Amino acid sequence: MSALMARIFAVFLMLLIIPEIGNKKGMWYNNLMKLDTIGSLFSRAWEGFRKRFDTVAKVFLVPVVFIVLGRMLLSHETPATIALGFLLTIISVIASLAATIALISVFGKGTDFAASYRTGFKLFWPSVWIAIMVGLAVFGGFVMLIVPGIMLAIALGLSSFVLVLDGKRGLAALAASREYIKGYWWAVFGRMLLVILIYIAALLILYAPFQLLFGSYVGSLVYGILIWIITPFIISYEYEIFENLRRLKPSVAAESEAKMETSFLKVAMVLGIIGWVAFAALIALGIAFAPNGYQGYYGPGMTPPPSQGSY
């Protein structure tokens, strides 16, 4: 049985990894045109960000306000402020999802503040569903010996752009994102690694010192300013990658879900569901059988041995 399972896992790995990294020499997609350079993408992203800064600043200011206030309130130890901070944090997550869709609309369609948020609220639930499906597929990929999860995390990273700009929803958006990146996995990974490193560097250099030196209030404010600027730029940069891939693969936008390869995604999502159920079951079992102090070890009416301090 173990040998059979190993073969099944090997087949899954090959089905995923070969198409995704096929832009390497000698692989299936070595005849594809190259993506634009990092410098070219970065330059266009900065230009788009600069031209639309007034709109994107207003769009993303909405979730940033809730994020900052939520972090400040959660730093208190009173139940009322913690509860309010938790509520604002939930609102910030909802606002961030709508704002992300709105920002994609700004960069992809040139919409203003009002039109962008109309798109954000109109596509809010489809974007939530896509986020859930991506999360399940990636988690299912990690269940399959980790590597497929990493591959899917990149391959499905443009699903929200497909939703807003190609009009595909649900599994079709995930399949289209994977199809766009197929053959360009390493190229996209390398280009996305740049903005990830920029974000981490900004947090380490700018946010961390303020948090350590001046406390949570100032730290939360600096964090809010950083994500207010960096997040829209990251969306602009990802949009340029998406547009580059759309020019290289114009047929993907017109393909229907029926013509796309979705079987692996379905398997990954099923494994993701099983994995989450198993994880929740383990937590529930851990809570159910957790010892209640010494009571769980010695049983009712039994006296635990005295601690060293009682001698």
Characterise the protein shown here:
This protein has 311 residues and is mostly helical. The protein has one domain. 77% of the residues lie in helices and 0% in strands. It has twelve helices and no strands. Helix 2 crosses helix 10 and helix 4 crosses helix 10 (185-248). It is globular. The N and C termini lie far apart (56 Å).
Helix-strand layout with pairing:
Blueprint: H1 2-20, H2 38-51, H3 53-74, H4 79-109, H5 113-122, H6 124-143, H7 147-155, H8 159-166, H9 170-181, H10 185-248, H11 263-288, H12 295-298
Characteristic terms for this protein:
mainly alpha, 311 residues, 12 helices, single chain
Distance between the termini: 56 Å
Query: How many β-strand stretches?
Result: 0
Number of helices: 12
Secondary structure category: mainly alpha
The whole-angstrom Rg is 23 Å
What is the overall silhouette?
globular
| Helical proportion, percent range | over 70%
Low-confidence stretches: 1-15, 21-31, 293-298
Order of helices and strands: HHHHHHHHHHHH
Mean pLDDT: 85
Estimate what percentage of residues fall within beta strands: under 5%
- How many structural domains? 1
Largest sheet: none
Summarize the structure.
This protein has 311 residues and is an all-alpha fold.
